[in-house]
Amino acid sequence: MIHGAGTTAGDLPDTLRVRTAGPVAVLTLARAAKRNALNDSTVLGIERFFQTLGPAVRVVVIDADGDHFCAGLDLAEMTERDTLSGVAHSQMWHRVFDVVENGTVPVIAVLKGAVVGGGLELASAAHIRVAETSTFYALPEGQRGIFVGGGASVRVPKLIGVSRMTDMMLTGRRYGAEDGAAVGLSQYVVPEGAGLETALELADKVAGVAPQTTFAVLQALPRIAEANPRDGFLMESLMAAIAQGTDDAKGRMRDFLDGRAAKVTR
Predict the structure, then answer these.
(1) Can 141 be counted among the known catalytic residues?
(2) Catalytic residue among 47, 77, 101, 121
(3) Span 9-207: which CATH code?
(4) Structure pTM?
């Protein structure tokens, strides 16, 4: 068993690889010859990985072999599905990426090269995205006579707005690393080859966040952001009271007041 991760190597397809570094688990897309295109076995393997995380894992980093994060759905698996089977296939992707976004641990994606179609859908389910300068984003489904099916129409507009996604779908517009970050597709841009190191540094910081705060950020914050202000303020008050009432929070506050905790500086 991979220490702390909970998933054994035999549980995953050979298109995925897992290793741990302390409280951080690194899940690597290992299909470089196909630009890490996602076939069904890989998507279901991602689900198994997240559903079986051990309690020692506090953060997950999604990395990729080769020059590209993910070029989307494996077109070799495109079959003549009838309407109902097409809906079921799309909902399978929705279910898996929901486990990524709404699971128990923060997820950091290391982006490079192609982050296209289903690759962007996977990346947008992560909580923090680190883009190397080689990164480019696209939704080519619009140019192929089809529509996104892995959650992009819900998640991507939350990052960049409906009008920008409309432009990507209808004109085939691509965003590079810098302009992608400017519109919200990533939070960080780093030199080529520095993505994983940066993500691991961020993961170490995230792993040190109090469990009650992590829970609030992952579970309450998205709901508050989507709520009307009246309900949002109430949820914020309740979550603030729950978090500050924990023994962990009280201990951290005592450390701060006694000068034992780091202060925010420039």
Answers:
(1) yes
(2) 121
(3) 3.90.226.10
(4) 0.91
